[in-house]
Design goal:
The protein has ten helices and ten strands. It is globular. The structure holds nicotinamide-adenine-dinucleotide.
């Protein structure tokens, strides 16, 4: 298992499995398959409405809790100290766990002005031992700065949209300079554009006998970011897992870096409130 050590000393498996848009009724089966394939890191969120399914698969797996890494997230409608505490309790209950490995503020929701207060609540949760690590998601530099100024814990991660045509290198660099590790969501562009339209990927994939998705996941892994592609198909879970074995050259990495067009496919954090 390839792991990364976060700024609080805890280790996270670098390749995980995301369950955004996995039907709540199909989540236990999907996560069971992912665990059988080898994934040990599952990324969910309260708003995905499938924490119960994740918890059910974890409980049924027989895998020791210490070998699993579970992340969930605080929805922006529950920002504020007291609602964050209540939301966290409810997530733990739905997951059937007594701690999560990582708890994130899902979106900064700048119009609410509640991100910093919520961050201090996450610090309390961490101090209680019920979240080993705490972090943020979809925070821009301007959202991170007040949090770094007011908080006593530096977020362990910032999870944001990043894929070949929307890499967000300045945000990665800002995080790195503060010890905040990057987690990428939408690593495959959420299937919203055809990876085959990017010729550099096709050339690399053909040379290596790999699929386009494998090349992109391998690129994320070589970049050193934490990545958790989503699929409900077991064959794709296996395909994505096999990206761990793909070796890219410096030229490959540079060619994929050059695909950046600063073109997001998901929501703009300024507009999610
Ligand atoms: P993704 O880039 O992982 O794309 C998922 C899509 O890619 C699926 O439709 C799937 O059919 C397709 N796919 C997966 N493997 C494939 C393969 N081998 N070949 C071809 N197609 C393949 O997008 P995502 O699910 O949005 O992002 C991954 C995870 O990130 C989510 O599941 C979730 O856990 C997290 N996420 C977080 C946020 C946030 O705001 N923090 C937002 C979106 C997603």
């Amino acid at each position: 298992m390839r792991t990364i050590t976060l700024n609080d000393g805890f280790r996270i498996p670098q390749l995980g499995f995301g369950v955004f848009l996995v039907d709540p009724d199909d989540t236990a089966r999907t996560v069971r398959d992912a665990l059988e394939v080898g994934y040990r890191h599952i990324d969910t969120a309260a708003v995905y409405r499938n924490e119960e399914g994740v918890g059910a698969a974890v409980a049924a797996s027989g895998i020791p809790r210490s070998e699993l890494y579970i992340t969930t997230k605080l929805h922006q409608s529950q920002l504020g100290r007291d609602s964050a505490m209540a939301a966290f309790d409810a997530s733990l209950e739905r997951l059937g766990l007594d701690y999560v490995d990582l708890y994130l503020i899902h979106w900064p929701a700048p119009a609410t002005g509640l991100a910093v207060e919520s961050w201090l609540a996450l610090e309390e949760i961490q101090a209680s031992g019920r979240a080993r690590s705490i972090g943020v998601s979809n925070f821009r530099i301007e959202d991170l700065e007040p949090l770094l100024a007011a908080g006593s814990v530096v977020p362990a991660v910032n999870q944001f949209e990043s894929h070949p045509i929307f890499q967000q290198r300045p945000l990665r660099a800002f995080g790195a300079s503060h010890g905040i590790h990057t987690e990428v969501w939408g690593p495959l562009g959420q299937g919203k554009y055809d990876l085959g339209e990017l010729p550099a990927l096709g050339t690399i994939a053909e040379r290596l006998g790999a699929t386009l998705a494998q090349v992109v996941i391998a690129w994320h892994l070589h970049e050193g970011v934490i990545v958790f592609p989503k699929t409900v198909r077991r064959s794709r879970m296996e395909e994505n897992w096999a990206a761990l074995d793909i070796e890219l050259t410096d030229d490959d990495l540079a060619a994929i870096r050059a695909l950046d067009r600063n073109q997001r496919v998901g929501s703009d954090p300024a507009e999610v409130n």
